[in-house]
Amino acid sequence: MQLLLVEDDVMLARALEQALVRDGYRVDLARDAPAARVALGDHGYSAVLLDLGLPGGSGLQVLKGMRERYDTAPVLILTARDQLSDRIAGLDAGADDYLVKPFQPGELGARLRAVLRRAQGRVAPVLAVHDVRVEPAARRVTRAGETVALSLHEYRTLLALMERAGRVVTRVQLEDAVYGGESAIESNTVAVYVHQLRRKLGERLIVTVHGHGYRIGAAG
Amino acid sequence: MNSLRRRLLAGLLLVIALFWAAWFGFQAVQMSREQTGHWDASVQAIGQQILLSMPAGSHEVSARPWYSLPPQVQQRDDRMKHMAYQVWSRDGRALLRSTSAPTQPFVPLQFDRDDAFAQVHVEGEAWRVYTISDAKRELQVQMAKSQRQLDAELGVWLRLSLFTALLLMALLGAVAWWIVRWSLAPADAVGNAIAQRAPLDLQPLADTGLPQELRPLVDAFNQLLARLDTALQAERRFLADAAHELRTPLAALMTQAQLAHSAATFEENRAALLPLIDGIERNARLTEQILDLARLDAADNQARAPAQPLHELVAMVVHDFDAAARQKQQRLRLHTEPCSAAVVVDAIGVLVRNLVDNALRYSGAGARIEVVCRPEQSDGARRAVLRVRDDGPGVPAAERARIFDRFYRVPGSASSGSGVGLSLVARIAQLHGATVEVGEGLDGRGLGITVRFTPHERQPDTPASAAAHPSAVVLELGARSAH
Q1: Partner residue opposite B475 with nearest CB, options A171, A180, A184
Q2: Domains of chain A
């Protein structure tokens, strides 16, 4: 698999590259935003590891550019910015996961694997079921043509369901998609987000499959 | 207008000028009337004298040589030009006339009245004319004064008055300016006193001998200084505490590092490095928390915070602790309902993180920790509530009030904490006007901390199904591949 690592700190970039190569990936390095854009324009990557604090333009702009061009490659943000608002901004801009430096060496590998696993089968630029339309590139959701405001977690839940339209998605899978990893935490949050989605997008959009999970659209 | 002095001066002078102008106008009108009256009287007297001087049975005496005044007198008393008279007989013959008088009567001859005043225009000149007829109505004297002369005399008076007044006004302005400066000097004095202070001199300003008007300002200023002083003292204390708190574990780390360095075998070396790594993590955490505290004190922007989906922020942060909880076989449970609060996102992140971190840290292996975020009714309003409870050893009731003090650690508890976490929670709650309550945790044991936020206008409806939804039951039984 071909990865793009965008990181301006030379030592860190080299260390990360070594670790990734050891895990069996091929790694391209970009030192700043313009180089990243060039690389993204030339190649398709299985995943992008993106530092936010880059010279020559912010990493967030690179990410937004990618999504605007319908580049759906999974993006894992690596950054020293640990504030919650930064994380929300990164995820809202289209990142799949957000890792705060310094991180444990094993953590990057695990999160990368999770992101790659989740991203399989993600191709379509627009997802639509009934009168609901999702445009991941613009992070926009409309119902019968009218834009609907969804919070970050509501959006991620909907996206996970839409990407597997017609198939049952378990609560665990939904938590994995929303929070970026399977967790052992007993939480009712997925039910809450599904409830919110039903409230905003119609009661019949998401079907509860008792004993298994949720499904959007007719069983396919 | 930005200068008090200029304001005062401009206001005063403007008012004085307006009043003076009104008075001057009044005076001018009065003067004009008086002057006219005065002239009328003299013209009356002269006219009557002329009449009385006429010999009876006079005939026309028009064509004869005139006398003239000596040249010097003529120059000195130039008023003659502007006075003229005519004496008419009943049958319209001019009996007597002054040099400057026109040949036609000033006023059409009418003998029905004794005397009268009139304003006429003759040959392009305006005259004020006094006519007086004799008792037998055989004779009429018309005594005229040029209006232009009247106006000129009034004009002289006006110009003189105006000039004097303007001079006085200028003088008044200068004096007023000086008085204004002198009056406002105390404000300058206070300003200088403040400007000359050393940078961190927070002693109150002296208020002896202050004018009444400045006293409230100086008092408010002194109160501000007192508040700053308190804050500064708090900061200094905090710095001292923080420095101490950081230094102590660092000393221990140094010892560990030296142990590792002097280890004889590779195994010993690795063993010595483990607590070192642990200690570094703890120190990093402490530093992070101290920075968070410092950041908080600096930024007080809660007032403008928009409403946030609190339940999602909480969910995000709680999920960060998944790995840590798993390591200690702790069971973390999260229950949310949609709720919003006007909070600063980053600050709330710090608050939740420290609450959960605190619970995990002090609960021990295998403990249960429960996090709840939902709207609840209390004190007559619906508020967003965040509650973290554990079933660990808890905190004795006597110590509970103190756990929010900076750098306070419950005696006898695990020493892995910094003592800063809960003080962060308290401070952030305070910044948001939220209340913090300490009580029991789960099943009558452990510690429970509840944060109640100020009510927000619209709490989203709680899902009617959240508590009793069939899928909630299903969640417990449903396939969970995590374990």
Answers
A1: A171
A2: 2-118 (3.40.50.2300), 127-216 (1.10.10.10)
